Amino acid sequence: MNARILAATTGRVLRQLRHDRRTVALLVLVPALLLTLVYYMYADQPTPPGQPSMFDRVALVMLGVFPFVIMFLVTSIAMLRERTSGTLERLLTTPLGRLDLLFGYGIAFGLAAAGQAAIASAVAYWVFGLTTAGSSALVIVIAVVNAVLGVALGLFCSAFARTEFQAVQFMPVVVIPQLLLCGLFVARDEMAGWLQAVSDALPLSYAVEALQEVGAHAEPTATMWRDLGVVAGAVVLALALAAATLRRRSG
């Protein structure tokens, strides 16, 4: 990869994103509004002595899940538009390589995710009183890595879609199973053996576990670092697969 080309690609994507007000609103406002909904859902739930509140447990996980889902949706549609409009075909006739393009997208949306995670975390911690044993900075780091995972998977899945509707159809296939099996609704060690095996193969499970480690421990744990490494490895793998399957234009 060429660093100068990579920086130019990242800048181009950020400029496009800045001028798309609806996407900016989706990235910035929606997570905060959804956290508000979660807060009032659990506001009157009793909390056992010495235990985190239901809001603390759910909101902490949501800070990682929201960026993953939103970035998957935004990126898969954005890349599809690049391809169907012919922009991607024109770009790939220049010295821009596929990895430069895809990693540029990953960096640009990762920077957007950092802003998104910071705003959502500020709302959760300062407005709604979210309490975690570990640092809020670690929560933001995990949320950003999770968002980049959504970007990478969105780039990969966009190669198999010809329309925006088809891109959205990948959400029930790629996103929802990970949400159901990540340990948010049922602890992973309480699942049936075959479901636990499937959960162990899904990167979102490790992102959720990393967030739960931050919620339960004042200092970063070995498990948290391992889980974060697994998610980062999944990002690199998804970007490599996206580069291998990237088409210049829709058939």
From TrEMBL:
The chain crosses the membrane at residues 24-43, 58-80, 101-128, 134-156, 168-187, 228-246. This is Transport permease protein. It comes from Micromonospora haikouensis. It is a multi-pass membrane protein. It is found in: Cell membrane. Residues 22-249 form the ABC transmembrane type-2 domain. InterPro entries: ABC-2_transporter_component (IPR051449), ABC2_TM (IPR013525), ABC2_TM_bact-type (IPR047817), ABC_2_transport (IPR000412), ABC_transpt_DrrB/DrrC (IPR004377). GO terms for biological process: daunorubicin transport; doxorubicin transport; response to antibiotic. Belongs to the ABC-2 integral membrane protein family. GO terms for cellular component: ATP-binding cassette (ABC) transporter complex. Keywords: Antibiotic resistance, Cell membrane, Membrane, Transmembrane, Transmembrane helix, Transport. GO terms for molecular function: ABC-type transporter activity. Pfam families: ABC2_membrane.
